[in-house]
């Protein structure tokens, strides 16, 4: 799910996703891949959450599809978490 927040007249999109990433090294690798594809975003993982949450904050429109493609190519599942 993507939520939109206006901050200093910039529309930010925040995506929150359930993933199958279980360790820090893989989360770091995926973060680097996402940042290569979408350099103007903030990426974070919460691996202690039971859903292994990925959070992406960006002003660009392509974050959800790019993240989905990156995770699926890496053999992981990604699913939006509804608010």
Structural features, described:
The chain has 83 residues and is an alpha+beta fold. It contains two helices and five strands; from the N terminus they run ββαββαβ. The protein has helices at residues 24-37, 63-73, and strands at residues 2-7, 10-19, 41-46, 53-58, 78-80. Strands 1, 2, 3, 4 and 5 form a five-stranded antiparallel sheet that branches. Strand 1 (2-7) and strand 2 form a beta hairpin. Helix 1 (24-37) packs across helix 2 (63-73). The longest helix is centred in the middle third of the chain and has 14 residues, at 24-37. It is globular, with a radius of gyration of 12 Å. It starts with a strand and ends with a strand.
Helix/strand/pairing class, anyone? alpha+beta
The average pLDDT score comes to 88
- Summarize the amount of helix as a percent range: 25-40%
Number of strands: 5
Which blocks of ≥5 consecutive residues have pLDDT under 50? none
Pattern of helices and strands: EEHEEHE
Q: In percent terms, what proportion of residues is strand?
A: 35-45%
What is the CA–CA distance across the termini? 7 Å
Largest sheet: 5 strands, antiparallel
- Principal-axes geometry comes out as globular
């Amino acid at each position: 799910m993507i939520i939109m927040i206006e901050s200093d007249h910039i529309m930010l999109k925040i995506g929150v996703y359930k993933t199958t990433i279980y360790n820090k090294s893989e989360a770091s690798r995926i973060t680097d891949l996402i940042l290569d594809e979408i350099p103007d975003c903030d990426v974070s993982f919460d691996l202690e959450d039971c859903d292994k949450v990925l959070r992406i904050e960006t002003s660009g429109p392509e974050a959800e599809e790019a993240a989905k493609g990156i995770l699926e190519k890496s053999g992981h599942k990604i699913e939006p978490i509804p608010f």
